[in-house]
Amino acid sequence: MTQTPRSHGRKSIAASLKPRDLMEETRLARAWTAQVITLFPQAFPGVLGESLTGKALKEGIWQLETVDLRDFGEGKHRNVDDTPAGGGAGMVLRPDVMGRVIDHALGRNPGPLVYLSPRGRRFDQQMARDWATLPGVTLICGRFEGLDQRVLDHYRIAEVSLGDFVLTGGEIAAQAMLDATVRLLPGVLGNADSTAEESHSDGLLEHPQYTRPAEWKGLPIPDVLMSGHHGEIAKWRRRMAEDLTRQRRPDLWSAYKGRTDGKS
Ligand SMILES: C[S@@+](CC[C@H](N)C(=O)[O-])C[C@H]1O[C@@H](n2cnc3c(N)ncnc32)[C@H](O)[C@@H]1O
């Protein structure tokens, strides 16, 4: 049985260390860690290995470890699932197998244990912000009909959903949630301001964005954005963000108004 988790990105440290390397080692030891329990470790890092999250992974700002559920399976064929008690369609991930993999994972990562599940609390920007302040997180990707309930109860595992739809497995949800979290870690985005004004950062959707050419298919960029007047541009962007939020997301708009009314 190979129970060595696969890690992605920089993690190994050379035996002889110079002062600069030692700083590097401390940084890596403290790197935010995502541990992912999955039947498909080859699906990682997937899109997380690209662009800014991929660069941050290589630089050791965060680290990713996959734990292959199959390694903890039963018997010659490493079975991980069985038919649902009481009958019905599909298969259920076995509690003994899940218990072994979870015990293994709990010893490796101090972060919270989360089961990706359409029944869970809906993931949002605030949850990404909260996760980014922790040492890391361990995500369990379900497959088939999901986990035996006793595992969830025994380990008091939080269930988190990507949205109100059903995926085939938790891997895509894991990558989406990790992407949203990792980009909030210090040093991942080039421009720290870029998270300050984007959608969901302060309860509003983002204003429209434009770039060159100044005219495209007869459509100009709004004059104010070409005026060079920073105060007017900021006011216009705020107004557009508020209009968009009011039109598209009345739920966000009333929460925002509840927070800001009386403040100005
Ligand atoms: C086919 S789904 C199981 C759905 C489950 N039988 C139900 O009805 O709630 C298989 C796995 O995909 C993952 N999954 C599916 N939809 C998800 C969502 N919206 N958010 C997070 N994970 C999801 C979960 O890990 C789940 O165990």
Automatic annotation (TrEMBL):
Q: Which InterPro entries match?
A: Alpha/beta_knot_MTases, tRNA_m1G_MeTrfase_C_sf, tRNA_m1G_MeTrfase_TrmD, tRNA_m1G_MTases_N, tRNA_MeTrfase_TRMD/TRM10
Q: Does the keyword S-adenosyl-L-methionine apply?
A: yes
Instruction: Give the record's GO CC terms.
Output: cytosol
Which cellular compartments is it found in? Answer: Cytoplasm
Query: Which top-level group of life is the source organism from?
Result: Bacteria
Q: What EC number(s) are associated with this protein in UniProt?
A: 2.1.1.228
The UniProt annotation places S-adenosyl-L-methionine binding at: 142, 162-167
Q: Where is the signal peptide?
A: none
Question: Where does the record place the tRNA methyltransferase TRMD/TRM10-type domain?
Answer: 35-254
Residue runs in coiled coils: none
List keywords of the entry alphabetically. Answer: Cytoplasm, Methyltransferase, S-adenosyl-L-methionine, Transferase, tRNA processing
Q: Which reaction does it catalyse?
A: guanosine(37) in tRNA + S-adenosyl-L-methionine = N(1)-methylguanosine(37) in tRNA + S-adenosyl-L-homocysteine + H(+)
- NCBIfam families assigned to the protein according to its UniProt record, in alphabetical order: PRK00026.1, trmD
Task: Describe, as the record does, how this protein assembles with itself and its partners.
Answer: Homodimer.
HAMAP family given in the database record: TrmD (MF_00605)
Question: Which protein, by its recorded name, is this?
Answer: tRNA (guanine-N(1)-)-methyltransferase
Q: Which organism is it from?
A: Lutimaribacter saemankumensis
